[in-house]
Amino acid sequence: MQLTILATTLLLLTLIGFYLGRSRAVASAGGNRRQLHSLPGYHGVYVALWCGLPALFIVALWLVVEPHVIEALVLSGLPEGMTDVGPGQLSLLINEIRNAANGVSFFGEPNPAVVAAAERYNALHQIGFAAMGVVAAAAAIGGLAWARRRIAPNMRARNRVEKAIMAILIVLSTISVLTTIGIVLSLLFESIRFFSRVPVTEFLFGLQWSPQTAIREDQVGSSGAFGAVPLFAGTMLITLIAMCVAVPVGLLSAIYLADYASPRVRSVVKPVLEVLAGIPTVVYGFFAALTVAPFVRDAGASAGLDVASFSALAAGLVMGIMIIPYVSSLSDDVMNAVPQTLRDGSYALGATKSETIRQVVFPAALPGIVGAILLAVSRAIGETMIVVMAAGLAANLTANPLEAVTTVTVQIVTLLVGDQEFDSAKTLAAFALGLLLFCVTLILNIIALRVVRKYREKYD
Amino acid sequence: MMVMDRSNRATAPTAPAPGAQAEATAEATAGVYGPLKISAQGVDVFYGDKQALKQVDLDIHENQVTALIGPSGCGKSTFLRCLNRMNDVIESARVRGTILLDGQNIYDRDLDVVTLRARVGMVFQKPNPFPKSIYDNVAYGPRIHGIGSGKAELDEIVATSLERAGLLKEVKDRLHEPGTGLSGGQQQRLCIARAIAVNPDVILMDEPCSALDPIATARVEELIDELRENYTIVIVTHSMQQAARVSQRTAFFHLGELVEVGDTEQIFTSPRDERTQGYITGRFG
């Protein structure tokens, strides 16, 4: 609430800064706009930036630093002996004080020292916030006044504003890059913790996956085995089945769209096909689990085959359908990019449509098509929901599509779902699996993008 | 899809007047040349609602270069593309009238486009070699039509075609390198070699030199002159000098009509129509 008021005030000040800067610029040129180096609007933005950015920066910094300062002050005010505890106990104590400050109590009647500390905490927080408001407003007004004073007809406001905009864009894109790096690093560190308990070689080459570890000493049958090979084999099997569905169907529909369909048909069919990509994967998931899996099992049974009720085949089929639009849409684009003159050249030699496609269009588009397929593969490998619902949990090392297999993503989900100790090998294994999966899809994506780019260079 | 009006002039008696003059011109000169190869009669072409060609009558004689000239958008390329039915590829195009190739209407219902195009080859404005090796580019047509069964026979066809296109000497040692790696002029001669590899009767050329430099142009023009011995050639060109250099007969198109056709020399020295006069003296176009 208070923060909203502060933000509104700052926004208002910034807006005022814009109008003040603009009118000041016009006035400084004696009403003759042509004497200004930059348009009045740029002067306005210049003042607004000087008004808003420093204040915003101060608020952001304050919000980060303030809690630490207040914590330190509150702790130092506590009676002797209460703070001489381990770091775990200390953070518990801080939480207790904070809860008390917010009027929440989990432990019955709180310790009077805690209550006192909570009061101090609240008071400090109030003071801190008021101080922040004052400082931020002062910075805004100061910036406004300073920038406004600098406005002159020959001031290069446009160049400065452009520079500021560039800086803002850089900061924002840095945030997204840093977030990615942060995620990867956290994966990496957790994985390293995992590998300190389970050797890397065992993880990468072990043929046994059974992530049950004993919580208590006296439990039985929970030795734990962390060989990722069955998981990757299952992932590959399901991906292979999916590609067996998606590549022929997607590619042939792309050929139809690119060379056979009339523009009117194309303008209808292509978006419809792309709707497939918009269906939530959870919908595909229960479609797989409730419709396709029983169908496959019954069909197998009537053919005298023993099919698991959650077979790799069912999950792979549905995943293949999900991936069709990725293959078809991208392939259609690259085949359309093959110049019409090449097709004409082939037709003029008396080639039919299918001969032209097979011998000219398809080879010319092949690198792009390979790229499309690789992107689809990395999508299939990372796909989670369908396999969670339809592939089962048994880590069988098999190439038989009628048996149940499990995938990397499924295991990550099952490892982290439910109440878990957060530093057991079992939970940490999820991070290692995630890291490995990330590496695989990253490599596939890099290869795919390189292939696609190489192709683009050829025809543009 | 393309809608074809198959009626020829015998069954469609309403042949309007505009074509009459051109027809008379064509008939007047027909006796002087070799046997008739292609005879277009009352050809109309529509792109959607727009009429691109109006009642064109034109005779093309064997072993001769016929040049089609005229300002941009006059319909000369459209007419050229009628001769091997390349307009079929264009969605909105509609062709009406009769085009006889050796006496047979190429717009007949039972005529196979594939055989027609094997007999009437085409070279395009921009060199368009396939992204394959030089050898495979030339062998493309023969393979499709099943000409040259063994490897030796195919080698022979490729070598002869390249030789005739005057390219063999330059590419002899790199037949298996990509055709797209050649220079523009070489690419265009490769396309000509590709067209003659299927042994057509007629070669259509749609501004074959407009993407080439003067030296490559001279080389291709020389080649056209040599090819005349064995093939009937129809060439669309923007350059009147080129028409004068390579062709024996010239047809002038303007706004979708065939204005005048005759001996190249006659067209360039004493045109009968003042529009032709205006165009060749550079007053418009």
Q: Based on the coordinates given, report the CATH architecture of chain B.
A: 3-Layer(aba) Sandwich
CATH C-level label of the largest domain in chain A = Mainly Alpha
**N-to-C SSE series of chain B?**
EHEEEHEEHEHHHHEHEHEEHH
The number of helices of chain A is 15
The count of domains of chain B is: 1
Structural class of the secondary elements of chain A?
Answer: mainly alpha
CATH topology category name of the largest domain in chain A: MetI-like fold
Major sheet strand order of chain B = 7-8-9-4-10-11
Radius of gyration of chain B: 19 Å
Helix/sheet category of chain B:
alpha/beta
Shape of chain A: flat
Tally of DSSP β-strands of chain A? 2
Order of helices and strands of chain A: HHHHHHEEHHHHHHHHH
The largest chain-to-chain contact, stated as pair and per-chain residue counts, equals:
A-B, 21 and 28 residues
Low-pLDDT regions of chain A: none
Task: Give a quick precis of the structure.
Chain A has 15 helices and 2 strands. Chain A is mainly α and 460 residues long.
Describe, in plain words, how this protein is organized in 3D.
The complex is a heterodimer of chains A (460) and B (285). Chain A has 460 residues and is mainly α. The radius of gyration of chain A is 32 Å and the shape is flat. Chain A has a two-stranded antiparallel ribbon. In chain A, 37% of the residues are buried. Chain A has 2 domains: 154 residues, no CATH class; 235 residues, MetI-like fold (Orthogonal Bundle). Chain A is 76% helix and 1% strand. In chain A, helix 1 runs antiparallel to helix 2, helix 5 crosses helix 15 and helix 12 runs antiparallel to helix 15. The two termini of chain A are 55 Å apart. Chain B is an alpha/beta fold. Chain B has one domain: 3-Layer(aba) Sandwich (Rossmann fold), CATH 3.40.50. Helices cover 37% and strands 24% of the residues of chain B. Chain B contains 11 helices and 11 strands. A 6-stranded mixed sheet of chain B has the order 7-8-9-4-10-11, with helices on both faces. In chain B, helix 4 crosses helix 5, helix 4 runs parallel beside helix 7 and helix 5 packs across helix 7. Chain B is globular and about 55 Å long. The two termini of chain B are 33 Å apart. The N terminus of chain B is likely disordered. The chains are: A mainly alpha (460), B alpha/beta (285). The interface between A and B is medium-sized, with 21 and 28 residues.
